[in-house]
Amino acid sequence: MSQVMFDLDVLRTFSTGVALGSYARAADKLGRSTSAVSAQLKKLESQAGTALLRKQGRGLALTDAGETLLAYAHRMLELNEEAAAALRGADLQGWVRLGLQEDFGETLLPAVLGRFARAHPKVRIEACVARSSELRERLELGQLDLALAWDAGDQPLSPYAERVARLPLLWIGPSAPERVDAPWWTEREHHGLGARKPKSKEPLPLIMLDAQCPLREIVINALDRAGLPWRRAFGSASLAALWAATSAGLGLTVRTPFGLPAQVRTLERSVLSLPALPQISLVLYRAQAHSEAPASRLGTMLLEAVRQHVGPLGEPN
Predict the structure, then answer these.
(1) Helix, strand counts (H, E) of the chain
(2) For residues 265 and 172, is the Cβ–Cβ distance under 8 A?
(3) CA 72 from chain center: how many Å?
(4) Helix, strand or coil for residue 62?
(5) Which helix (H) or strand (E) holds 71?
(6) Are 163 and 115 in contact (CB under 8 A)?
(7) Do the Cβ atoms of 144 and 138 come closer than 8 Å?
(8) Does the pLDDT at position 70 exceed 80?
(9) Which of 35, 80, 177, 283 shows its CA 20 to 30 Å from the CA of 267?
(10) pLDDT tens, 148-206?
(11) 251, 236 in Cβ contact below 8 A?
(12) How many whole angstroms separate alpha carbon 61 and alpha carbon 56?
């Protein structure tokens, strides 16, 4: 039996189409015709010996085999890019000061910094995790070269900022339905948390970051407009503490689907009579228009990693 040799170019098309949610968009992004993209996908399915995509409504969804191949495609493309970057930037030197919000510390930081360090061993990285307001302040003071943070639209973007994607704000509760704060819920003999309705007279227990947090104002304003009473059940400066309190059932919190830990889950707001919430932008901030080579390279790697992760969760900009 002949050895299958997957084409990296075809795998890139496959991965890009999944990330963008459309192979027509992938064709535009990659500068190819839709017929060329279709031919690449047929070639890939022929090599795989099985269907990778199936129809779902008006769009396409991955089969089990497609999910498996996508994971390998990401790894192969990352390794290819890492090898190319190592050859291009073997002599890259200097240092980069990077700031991130807590959401990205566990999700992106280890993988991106590991790849960067292997490709550019002579570059020193200083990373800090802080709130968005503090990161923007440090950029203005010249203490950071790059920062990845959420933007709620409460302040104008700096001239060197790039919107990476827009993600929905979602109501989040514990993964275990039995941990929900009982006084706020009316029990129904149905299917756990998704079938419960809030009591109109009981204030909603909110778990939020301490001020100044722009999400606090968004959530409170949405509840006030909907005429729903609320109370502060738990507050902290730490996102990890909020996840712990939410997991324990002390109340509900609000965040994007990016990097949610296993002990919490998103809730169906319409079933629970909760107000709709807006989207929020994910922004890569740069200290200057033309960054030094190390910062420019790290910024590119961050964008690639974020867009790969965000693809199924929100709208790329």
Answers:
(1) 10, 15
(2) yes
(3) 20
(4) strand
(5) helix 64-88
(6) no
(7) yes
(8) yes
(9) 283
(10) 999 887 677 777 888 888 899 999 999 876 555 444 554 333 344 444 455 446 789 99
(11) no
(12) 6
Question: How is the beta sheet containing 170-174 ordered, strand by strand?
Answer: 253-255, 170-174, 264-266
Beta strands in the chain (DSSP E): 53-56, 59-62, 94-100, 123-129, 146-151, 162-168, 170-174, 185-186, 197-198, 204-209, 230-236, 253-255, 264-266, 279-286, 315-316
DSSP code at position 49? T
Query: For residues 175 and 264, what is the distance between their CA atoms, to the nearest angstrom?
Result: 5
Q: Is 35 exposed, middle or buried (0-12, 13-18, 19+ CB in 10 A)?
A: exposed
- Tens of pLDDT, residue by residue over 274-303, are 999 999 999 999 988 777 888 888 888 888
* Rg (alpha carbons) of the chain, rounded to whole number: 22
pLDDT of residue 218: 92
Contact residues for 174 (Cβ-Cβ < 8 A; gap 6+): 180, 246, 247, 248, 249, 263, 264, 265
Per-residue CA distances from 168 to 17, 82, 96, 237, 276 (Å)? 21, 31, 31, 22, 10
- Cα 275 to chain center, whole Å? 22
Measured distance CA(81)–CA(63) in Å, rounded: 26
Q: How far apart are CA 124 and CA 177, in angstroms?
A: 45
Task: Note the pTM of the prediction, 2 decimals.
Answer: 0.66
How many CB atoms are located within 10 Å of the residue 238 CB? 11
pLDDT at 120: 84
Distance CA 242, CA 175 (A): 14
How far is C-alpha 176 from the geometric centre of its chain's CA atoms?
23
Instruction: Count CA atoms within 13 Å of residue 241 on its CB side.
Output: 10
